[in-house]
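Board notes (copied after class):
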Amino acid sequence: MRLPRAVRSFTSHVLRPALLPLVLLAPLSALADLSGMAEEMQRIDDEMPGNLGVYIKRLSDGAEVNHRTDRDWYLASTTKIPLGIAVLQLEEDGVFDREHKLELQSSDFIDGSGQLLLAQPGSRYTIDELNKNSIQDSDSTATDMLIRFIGEDDFNKHVQARISSEGFGPITTIVAVRHDTYSEVHGSAKSLSNADIMDIRRASPHSARFETLLEKLGLSADDTELSSYGEAFEQYYKHGKNSGSLVAMGEVLERLIQGEYLNEENTERLLGYMKNVSTGRARLQAGLPGDAVLAHKTGTQVARACNVGILNAHKPEDAVIVATCAEQYGQIANAEKAFASIGAALTEAGLVVD
């Protein structure tokens, strides 16, 4: 079997030749041992600055790879998957119709990607449009509108009761991430407006964000014990919000593809959004052949990045769950190279099916 040119080029300098025979020896259904993948994950981790966590599960036989899965990771925007599931479950319960429209408020705007940042307050969007934007484009404004509509406390109770009883810390709005992080610098940060928060994130270069934050708070460097923007986030991460186990995230993905959360129509709806995710082309996807079917979600925060998904999402019987996060990697390109290496390792191990 001949690998696609992009994968051959990538793996020729990223992966060890010892993995190549796996593709030639056996199809997915015949592979019984993923022990070699554990070694490969360690090698990828060793080559990346910082730390890398990886969870892989082949659903056809339950074989797993666990690398640094004995701890929690900051999950960033991958928490939008549980939100997407919750929204569709509530729609199935008859709590609301997915065509019900929500009004965009000034307090919903938050930094990040997505088209809603270009919209005017008062614009109206269906719940389905917001869910699609939240997942497919990682639109954080859409995410915060959905959480506001459900209620943050009610949403977290729903996650605990209907999606995952353990393994996840509290999931918050994106604006709460900013307020909580900036409050590590000074308690008055809770009063920052959404416009203030967006100004801070737009500051260039990135090193100017901390100075801009202090300016917005009317503080000097002597008024806080912290000395950088990154340090504020490191303090915030210690609280465990928007964090969780890669195994727990993997179980959520497994139950999603197996249709345990949603009816068939909504399962396909959510998987469709995940298959068309517009972010993360330099991550897992970069190491996969162009025709691989990956339903996934990315997440990025200061010194934190993730990519979680379902490989072979078009064939649930051959699905492979992948959940990976990285931290303290320096430049984001280092984390992306590691994620791409994981994708290439999956390819070389024969885990991609047509």
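Comment from the instructor: The radius of gyration is 21 Å. Residues 116 and 183 are 26 Å apart (CA to CA).
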